[in-house]
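**User:** Here is a favour to ask of a fellow structure person. Please take any protein you like and set down a full record of it. No explanation is needed for now; the record alone will do.

**Assistant:**
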Amino acid sequence: MQSVPIIAIDGPSGSGKGVITQMLATELGFHILDSGALYRLIGLAARKRGVDFDDETALATLARELDVQFIPTGDQQNPLRILLEGEDVSAEIRTDAAGVDASRVAPLGRVRAAIGELQRSFAVAPGLVADGRDMGTVVFTDAVVKIYLTASAQARAERRYNQLKDKDIGVSLHALFKSIQDRDERDMNREIAPLKPAEDAFVIDSTAMGIDEVFQTVRAIVQKALGEEKE
C-alpha cells in the first residue's frame, strides 16, 4: 500500500471535478489539490511580487516556493477557498486577467517542471484528492484510484450557465458552449500532457446524472479501492 493514498480526478472543464473532489476529500479527511488553479496562482503571485513574466527562471522559483492552501467550503457553487500566502484569493484568481496571466506562464517549460514538484508536494498524510487534467496520466501515475469525469459539452455549458445566472452574471449559453468546445479541442490535442483518461481510470459520464449520484458512484469506487489497499 502507498504510504500516502492518492485519488486522481481528471476531466474536462465543467465535468464536476471540483465539487466531487471537495465532497470526497471532506468525507475522507484528505488534502485537496486543485491543479488547474496553480498557473493562475503563479501569475497572481508574480504580479504581487513584481516578478517579470519574461523571467522564466524567476517564475519557476516562484512556483516551487508557492505557499498555497485549498480549503473545502461545503458549498457546491464555490467548493474551495484558496489561500495564497495566507490571503484569500478565491475570487481574484477566477478573473479574466488571472486567466490571461495563467496562459502566459503555462507554456514555460521550467515553470511546468516546477509545477510538477509543487503538485507532488501536496501528497502528504493522511491522503490526497487531486483534481485536474493530467493527474492520473502524468503527475500521479501511481494513484490508488484514477477517475475520469466527463459529460457532453452541452450539459457542461448548461451547468456553467446556471451557475453564472445564479450569481447574476450575464452570459450567453451559446458562447459558453463554444468556449467549452474550443477548450476541449485545445486540451485534448496539446503536445504536452493531453487531456485523456488514464488507461486504468474509471470513466464516468455524468451527462444524465445529478451531482449526488456522481458522488455516490465515485465514493463506491474509492471505498472499494482503499479497502483493497489495506488488505
